[in-house]
Amino acid sequence: MSLIDITKIFSMLQPCEDEDDDGERQELNKAVSQDDYQTVDKLLCQDRYKRFINSRSGWGVPGTLLRLAASKGHLRSLGVLLAHGAEVDSLDVKAQTPLFTAVSNGHLDCVKALLEAGACPSGSIYNNCSPLLTAARDGDLSILQELLDHGAEANVKSRVPDWAANTAACSGPLYLSAVYGHLECFKMLLLYGADPDYNCTDEKMIARIKRPKTLLEICLRHSCGSEFIRLLIDFGANVYLPNIAVDKISPKTEGLELLVGERAHPKSLMSQSRLAVRKLLKRARRARAIDQLEIPPVLVNYLKHR
């Protein structure tokens, strides 16, 4: 992050000097806060109210009206604001978008509406977190799938400067869903192309980390269930990467036994074929096109790890 980026952040978050703190703004805030969408619509038809549609105000974390509606899950008011031209990716003082706020509060309907209105599924580049990271941490499977279906990157990583790269820098959504025990979210991320080794495809970034940890190592050290280990192995994780001396770990867990067994025995031809097909589809940017393959349903289910 350069000095120019930091300057841009502060400039975007400064309140507009020509906006007087009139009663119109409070009236709009009250209507949105109470989800009085009809009043919101009526007010925004008037220019003296509409000039505040994208201004930031309020207690705590000042934000726009759209952020307020998203934080409270007021879908009707949110729809009215979007119809009147509210900026779908407007930022609050923490550089969080309305989508990020909706995800953080678990409002699936608002998440859908914002994404359909063109909200960036990755959130703001000026915030170190993202909607996908939040959904993975919270274990919200429905929201996670909405974000992925709208183009969120399964290998999202923290947006830190090059000099700040460390182990946490590769703490992507796969890592968070594992340490918080959200198995279904973990599997969904893998199905959408999350890298099973580092959850990071930026080789330069991985090279800058002194001792990068693989997902297998993290799952073993955090005593994640064997189901997590099995999924990583099935999705092609390199079982020789973890810096783990298996003979020094006690007690022996089922996940560790899976790793030892995988190191001793090669994958079956079926398993290798599944990895090859999924890899080719991912390379062609068609990772979700398995249903379109002219193969028996039983093989489709196998490719989907069902």
Structural commentary:
There is one protein chain. The protein is mostly helical and 306 residues long. It has 18 helices and no strands. The chain has 3 domains: 1-114, Alpha Horseshoe (Serine Threonine Protein Phosphatase 5, Tetratricopeptide repeat); 128-265, Ankyrin repeat-containing domain (Serine Threonine Protein Phosphatase 5, Tetratricopeptide repeat, Alpha Horseshoe), CATH 1.25.40; 270-306, no CATH class. The chain is 51% helix and 0% strand. It is elongated, with a radius of gyration of 23 Å. It starts with a helix and ends with a helix.
Features of this protein?
Ankyrin repeat and SOCS box protein 12, ANK repeat, 306 residues, Serine Threonine Protein Phosphatase 5, Tetratricopeptide repeat, 3 domains, mainly alpha, 18 helices, Ankyrin-SOCS_box_domain
